[in-house]
Amino acid sequence: MTVMQHVWIVLGVLFVLLNIAAGLIWLERRMLAVWQDRLGPNRAGPLGILIVLADTLKLFFKEDWIPPFADKGIFVLAPAIVVGSVLMTFVIIPFSPHIVVADLNVGILFFLAMSSLGVYSIVLGGWASNNKYSLLGALRGASQMISYEVFMGLSLMGVVMLTGSFSLGDIIAAQKNVWFVFTQPLGFIIFLIAGIAETHRLPFDIPEAESELVAGYHAEYSGMKFGMFFIGEYLGITMISAMTVVLFFGGWAGPSFLPPVLWFTIKTFAFILLFILLRASLPRPRYDQLMEYGWKILLPLVLVNLMVTGAVALWLRGG
Amino acid sequence: MFSHLRTIWLTFLHMFHKRATIEYPEERTPLHPRWKGRIVLTEDPDGGERCVGCYLCAAACPVDCISLQATEDENGRRYPEFFRINFSRCIYCGYCEEACPTYAIQLIPDFEMAEYKRQDLVFEKEDLLIKSQGKYPGYNFYKVAGLDAGVKQKGQGKMEEAPVDIHSLLP
Hints:
Chain A is mainly α. Helices cover 69% and strands 0% of the residues of chain A. Chain B has a domain at 33-137: Alpha-Beta Plaits, CATH 3.30.70. Chain B contains five helices and five strands; from the N terminus they run αβαββαββαα. The termini of chain B are far apart. Classes of the chains: A mainly alpha, B alpha+beta. The interface between A and B is medium-sized, with 11 and 14 residues.
């Protein structure tokens, strides 16, 4: 590929992702309404899709307030980190056989590293706000991320073992015959749960918890800085959905009557809708319950999964 | 764990339920005749004001949003010189309607009274008076009152007997 092609792919991926993240505002509100017997935004434009434009304009015209007691530099930096780290993750995701920014040979490691960096945004944002609710949100965010990061990585090791490679291109190629969701069902479920916790979405939105912590780590943010946290959250949903599709549902593979990139989009949106459905249906657990659930149930489960997968893989290879 | 999955499934099924939303400006809920909304002053069947300026509504009002001044015409008929309701204070409790002895003040099923300026929510007597008898058609206070205020002669009122000649002993 020429240099220009690379540049076009990068710009195209960036453009599409930012638009999807903005469009998810509308999609989420509409789908939540559908599942709560309401109508949702339906006034601005066809099916209310221009609500995205209205929301963005509103955010831009809000007062961009930095509290005088805040740590100014870090306060401004925090929202940029979440968007930056999530966008970096999309570098390794193959949207189709040819549309991939960089198929790194350490793909999954890169993904884990970048998604862990996202927690800095929460911790720094909560700390710099100099507000007790924000700090509590940041603390919860840090503990949640650390504990869920552990078995998020471990749940993917089964996939890596079966493939023998960290590269996402190889992982998709290894799912040519059977998707990893059938050979690694436990790994898939645990990865999905960890992914929800990783994007701190409901039911695991402990760092935000608007009913107890007002808005947690972004309580002091306004205007487009707050918007960046939101874009980061929606990008995170898209990222976890895309990673689930790549790792467990064969990525862009599908019957040939649709182009691969469309298959990828359909599968990803199915998972985004699942994220929204989870938000519509499940209540938030207490944070000690969340920790207990993670360390006492999911971590042993993922270790068992890891050992069984390793044993079976060795047995198949040896036999 | 099973109950979680069941919850998710039941929420998913809500996709096919009927919407609860009423799209207000195009679609409206029916308001009942006794719905307590905007306050009006009604008139009696002869077209006269029903209000006799007794101040009972102003006394009953829990937020003190009613202000009036009573006066009399040449026949001795009482009426309010001015009658002012501050709808930015009114809580639409309907106590004024209950207190009114002449059915003059009534609450009607209308709530769409938004204004751009707060002062426009202060309604004067000419804004409150309507050409209707409201919920009590046919009622005329001065027809049943003992007082002759130009509406009926002495002894001519509804269910009223002619005056007795107290100087005669004949039954």
